[in-house]
Amino acid sequence: xxxxxxxxxxxxxxxxxxxxxVVWFTDGxxxxxxxxxxxxAIPGGVTVGGPVALTDTKGATVTEATFRGRWMLVYFxxxxxxxxxxxxxxxxxxxxxxxGPAGKPIVPIFITIDPERDTQAALAExxxxxxxxxxxxxxxxxxxxxxxxxxxxxxxxxxxxxxSAYLMDHSSFIYLLGPxxxxxxxxxxxxxxxxxxxxxxxxxxxxx
Length: 208
Description:
This protein is of the alpha+beta class and 208 residues long.
């Protein structure tokens, strides 16, 4: 299954590079890929996102239709992530704060790629560290793999030398989905909170 996800990630790289003229960087692993520009429009015919069936921190089933009619900021990561994930989630939280009431139509969503450790209880504790609005989602290994494949997310378990616990190598993007559930743009790793807020405000005002 992870082999399929890896191929999907490479497919997204090719699509982005060809369709948007962006530059990709990697330090030897796909988990460090990032876009050089702020965000990018989605070329016609490219599908990212789709049917999912996951579980929130209260045990309720969440599908792709649960938040239909609202904008969604989706990020894939895991609670044991030492740096990238908390940084990106903090950026999302600050950006929503900067939007104020204008940000109410947006639902921030955190989907784990480490269901083995990220239980409902673990996610509940984690997401509240960042923002009460943040929705944490987990599921079975198969459900997470299906969701990651749908969003062309790469992830894999890795154990650093001399480490007692494993880490998760993963791609890092913030996905913006419109009220109709279609992907509108991606934001690179390291995007600033003000940049993100400005882009979201512009898109919400334009309705696209």
